[in-house]
Predict the structure.
Amino acid sequence: MSSNKPLAGKVAVVTGATRGGGRGIAVMLGEAGATVYVTGRSVKGNPATDGRSETIDETAALVNARGGIGIAVRTDHTVEEDVKALFGRIGREQDGRLDILVNDVWGGDSLTQWETPFWEHSLDNGLLMQRRAVHSHIITSHYGVPMMVARRQGLVIEVTDGTDYRYRGTLYYSLAKVSTIHLAEGMAADLKPHGVTALALTPGFLRSEAVLDHFGVSETNWRDAVAKDVHFAQSETPYYIGKAVAALASDPNVAAKAGKALMSGDLAEEYGFTDVDGSQPNWNAYYKRTFERQ
């Protein structure tokens, strides 16, 4: 294992890796040398999300371009048989090995009604959000974690929004994100005797493809959007959380973080990595400095 490929020989699954943080995580795990199973519903010629063209095939190609091995497997993580088949395939192809599982399925943007009390929010959309963003994680871990338990090693990362249990402004969104944090906390307790670590991880202000489109900018000129939202100056690329995952997966003492909810910017300061432009944004510190002291 070389110092610049600390995850060479490791096998990872990144769910919801079509775009955004999932894509950034998959690519940076690939750069660290891992074999990465890239999963999601959008495949070449058949994108599953209205208005979005990104596919898991593109993400797998980016993993390969960074020096890893990217394997795209179409998987609907709300469908138990899909998930069971995914890990059956990994078991056969990797001789039962799974080192890293990143649960990043979300799919709730189009379902969230902001500034709407829960009794006026679409009930169907609210429940579907839990199915996509919480149940999918449970189903995936149910089938993936036994591969880690069998080898008494592994890391499970639950990607969420925020590091605490405070209300996030709309009930169904808040429930999904808080539940994901508790999934990590509960899994960590169950997995501790088996040598497997589970934790939660959140990006800061994520500069995803959809966010860039929302602001009418690209990654090249993203700073133009700061005029619309001053807080956007503290945003980060999807590769930043990807570097956080790679750092955690490379840390021999990661078990000390079991059950915790962590943020990309804090981990950047701890592990010494930067975003792709050399900056080191810390949304956690910025939020506390800007909003909590008002």
Observations:
- The CA atoms of residues 203 and 264 lie 5 Å apart.
